[in-house]
Amino acid sequence: MQKLIQGIHEFQRSIFRPQRELFEKLAKGQNPDTLFITCSDSRVNPNLITQTEPGELFIIRNAGNIVPPHSLHVGGEAATIEYAIAALKVKDIIVCGHTRCGAMKAVVHSEDVKELPRVAGWLAHAEATRQIIREHYRHLEGEARVTATVQENVLVQLEHLRTQPMVAAGIAGGTLRLHGWVYKIETGEVYAFDPEQRQFSPVAEARLPAAPEPFTHFQSI
After folding, report:
1. Which of 19, 33, 218, 221 maximizes the CB count within 10 A of its CB?
2. Residue 13 belongs to what domain range?
3. Is residue 162 a part of any domain in this protein?
4. Catalytic residue, candidates 20, 43, 61, 134
5. What is the pLDDT of residues 2-34, one digit of tens each?
6. Is residue 217 one of the residues assigned to a domain?
7. Among this protein's residues, is 41 annotated catalytic?
């Protein structure tokens, strides 16, 4: 805790003061262009990875970068997505998974969370991911299997995202684009799903469609 307190003092002295004008502007409101949905993993820092300033990303974080499909039950993810689109007018939504993901390891090895019923219940939103891995990736083992799970889960959660009414409306109206990313912790690389190539490619090389297209299976990184 002492490290966090010292960090606050350092922030106020070295970051806030030189950028006081920016923070005074942010105090009047926010205008992010992008909703960034990613994992709660402490090794993933969206602003650091994308080199964005405060106010540029609207962020949802949870175990496994999961988006529950639309239902009558209103959860925090659905409410945040609705607000991002309707109130903040974001133009892009990114679902970003990452390598070495504990949540995705638990999707592959459900016994890891048998003593964690709420975690197991949450990961039920990745059941389609589990089935895809079981049916199509039996030849992979160990970390390669987990990495394939990370990638497939990004695509599954994008499909869940499409079931949200505000998202469906934004896509139909041409005002919203969806993107699937995977952050590779061990190298710092970011891969984006290219619908035409049906695979994840380095983000600088991936073709970003003007309008979202159906997602399908791909070749692994």
Report:
1. 218
2. 1-29
3. yes
4. 43
5. 999 999 999 999 999 999 999 999 999 999 999
6. no
7. yes
Q: What is the pLDDT of residues 105-140, one digit of tens each?
A: 999 999 989 999 999 999 999 999 999 999 999 999
Mark whether 96 is an active-site residue. no
Catalytic hit among 39, 96, 145, 179: 39
Number of domains in the chain: 2
pLDDT at 147: 96
Catalytic residue among 41, 96, 130, 145: 41
70, 96, 98, 130: which one is catalytic? 98
**CATH of residue 128:** 3.40.1050.10
Q: How many CA atoms lie within 13 A of 113 on its CB side?
A: 19
Judge if 82 and 132 occupy the same domain.
yes
- Look up residue 22 and give its two tokens: 């920016």
Question: Residue 189 falls within a domain, yes or no?
Answer: yes
CA quadruple 208, 176, 39, 113: dihedral positive or negative? negative
Are residues 6 and 56 both part of a single domain? no
